[in-house]
Specification:
By secondary structure, the chain is mainly α. It is built from eight helices and two strands, in the order ααααββαααα. The chain has one domain: Orthogonal Bundle (Arc Repressor Mutant, subunit A). The chain has a two-stranded antiparallel ribbon with strand order 1-2. Residues 9-108 form the HTH hxlR-type domain. Keywords: DNA-binding, Transcription, Transcription regulation. This is Helix-turn-helix transcriptional regulator.
């Protein structure tokens, strides 16, 4: 895969890959919502168009952020799983959620609240650790 980067800045290079409207949403859906099949993604409330979803899943796979494999119980169905590289995005997602919680509630009061958000507010590291632990536990049951 050949990726065009605007410059050699590490921040800009990351944004060149992850700054797309859908890339981190797909990672979040996998990590937090348990999405793992194409059908799972198409049924999400974010309503990503199927052609865009196909393209982004392919790109995430090419980048090594996700792995496409077959379901152990149904070899016809593709399964998308986060790799270690994908799980390394957890701190980015945690910081984005923290920022959103703190600065967007006044203009978007419907942002999710509750027990998980309280943990995020009170202990970001514990929240991030729990996300990774739960996802790795899920991976262990699939592999």
């Amino acid at each position: 895969m050949s990726q065009d980067f605007r410059c050699d800045c590490p921040f800009t290079s990351a944004v060149d890959i992850l700054g797309d409207k859908w890339m981190l949403v797909i990672v979040k859906q996998m990590l937090i919502e348990g999405k793992e099949t194409f059908k799972d993604f198409t049924e999400s409330e974010e309503a990503i168009a199927t052609n865009i979803l196909s393209d982004r899943l392919k790109l995430l796979e090419e980048l090594g952020i996700i792995l496409k494999t077959k379901r152990p119980d149904n070899k016809k169905s593709n399964l998308y799983l986060l790799t270690d590289k994908g799980l390394a995005l957890i701190p980015v997602l945690v910081e984005l959620a923290t920022w959103s919680d703190r600065y967007l509630r006044d203009i978007h009061p419907g942002i999710v609240d509750g027990e998980k958000m309280e943990l995020l507010r009170n202990d970001k590291a514990a929240f991030a650790h729990a996300l990774e632990k739960n996802y790795r536990k899920k991976l262990a049951t699939i592999e």
